[in-house]
Design goal:
disordered N terminus, 6 strands, alpha+beta, flat, disordered C terminus, single chain
Length: 258
Amino acid sequence: MSASNNKNMKWVNFNFVKTVKVIKKGKFLTSLDPKLVEIWLRTYEKSVFDFKRMGDNFERFQKEDPDKVESDIECITQSSDWEVVHQNYECSKNPEFVVDESYFGKGDLDDAIQEWIDTKRVDITSIYATGHNPLELQDFIKEYQEIFNKIWKRKTIYDLKEGRNGTDNEVGLYFSLRKLVGLEVPEGIDTEFYIEWSNGKGFDAYLQLKEEGWVRSNWKGDANYEKWLKENLTKEEYKKWKGTFEEDEEVEETCEVT
């Protein structure tokens, strides 16, 4: 459903939190035992700050007003400057949605958000539209029919279930389908069904697809062809393939000589 069709306009209340870490560098000369000086520093720190239990965590809080704390720190660092070393930004994880009946139509960001939502839809149609070998696609789906039937009911990839041990992994199957037909798959996404299927097919099945005309090029110098072989063949099969081409080259050279 398009965002413009939603008559209930809502305010989205959220926060961005900026956390800034700063340091104040200090130094002083001493002729005393380093170990004892370090202990003195820890003791001085405790005199500036106090520690109290806050819920389940120990938090440091100021014993006196901030100006007094700053003054005590400056007293030994002999520096008034703080240096920013790190900044972190985080958006609130649970925004609040509040219906406002006085507003109708479409929000300022709705078009941009809707465009993003459209890219995240579970799009089975695009898989069939690639023109991939229909027999292989049919066999692949049939192999995992029960999970595939559930994928049809999902609107976006965020609605897909991620089952345990691959028994009901809708995410894995959907992106395995996309990989099978050559569509883009985000980096790091599980495609275990595709790997399992490819390992099961092996070299003979690929040759069958080549003979049927589904492989556009099988010339030995085609980088895409060799890349497919490296990704999908076992080490033994790949060696066999390489060995076959080497033999072919030797035959060609021999023919040229004679």
